[in-house]
Amino acid sequence: MLKVGFFSAQRYERPFYPEGARDGVVIEHFEQSLNARSVMLCQGLDAVCVFVNDQLDRTVLERLSIVGVRLVALRCAGFNNVDLETARELGIRVCRVPAYSPEAVAEHCLALILTLSRKTHKAYNRVREDNFDLNGLLGFNLAGKTAGVIGYGQIGQALVRILKGFGCHVLVCDNEPRQGDFTQVDLDELLAASDIVSLHCPLTDDTYHRIGEPEFKRMKNTAMLINTSRGALIDTRACIEALKAGELGYLGIDVYEQESELFFRDRSDSIPQDDVFARLTSFPNVLVTGHQGFFTEEALAEIAATTLDSLAAFERGAALSGEL
């Protein structure tokens, strides 16, 4: 039997990953994130299953190797939180969920776009206080606007389809030549021309702070920036300066550079410690959600099916889906 520790386990996940034995796999849930402090919990495990904010650096991976962990299964698509080179050195295999319901994230992008463009979050709060004044709620049409999509993977493709349905002119920036009902351009042209910019690329050394001070200078000062990929694609401090200077019209993010210390926990009774995040959320033209773009029934079911299949395949000695 393969003993697997599920770290950063949330209540909403448990129905998808029931504890106990299934297909040669025994699951144990841990609410703690996996990091250098919690790695001691891995004693007696054969594998760990982790999420976006678990930290699997060299120190953690070396300790996992010592206690006999042979597999790291990511129940997400991104893998920037795993030191893959060290994992290979130690003989620890790593797999992920390479694709799951791209429409879930693309539709969340649209939710952020429409909420910001029509100010429905502000209208909701007003109406609950019997305030039906429309002043300050003036929005804009998506039809006829230019939308720039950076990264044309499955989520980017799903968003392009949605934006075309709203009547947008779509620009795409991607490392590979792409074809479709859009215009492919380089990053500078996309930033200069777009009314809406949405990020859909993985976080790598090359894409770290892809949108920083120079990029904000190139964008329209009325533009909307959306990020549902990884927080560090945006230089948050540069973004705050752009907002303060009126160089960015709107910001909608589902991810944040330092989210591992914030997201997926109830901190409503805690004193805020992140001054950068507090400043970011103080702007009236900023909308933040807590990394919920993936959070649909369909997406969770697909993630669980792929993850459990990979664990069972590892136990059988078969090939793994999404092995890195």
Structural commentary:
- This protein has 324 residues and is an alpha/beta fold.
- The protein has two domains: 2-100 and 297-316, 3-Layer(aba) Sandwich (Rossmann fold), CATH 3.40.50.720; 102-288, NAD(P)-binding Rossmann-like Domain (Rossmann fold, 3-Layer(aba) Sandwich), CATH 3.40.50.720.
- 32% of the residues lie in helices and 16% in strands.
- It is built from ten helices and 13 strands.
- It has helices spanning 58-67, 84-90, 102-118, 120-128, 154-165, 187-193, 213-218, 236-244, 275-280, 297-316; strands spanning 2-6, 20-22, 25-29, 47-50, 71-74, 93-95, 146-150, 169-173, 183-184, 196-199, 224-227, 250-253, 286-288.
- Strands 9-8-7-10-11-12-13 form a seven-stranded parallel beta sheet, with helices on both faces.
- Helix 5 (154-165) links the parallel strand 7 and strand 8 (169-173).
- Helix 3 crosses helix 5 (154-165).
- The longest helix is centred in the C-terminal third of the chain and has 20 residues, at 297-316.
- The relative contact order is 0.14.
- The model has no long low-confidence stretch (mean pLDDT 95).
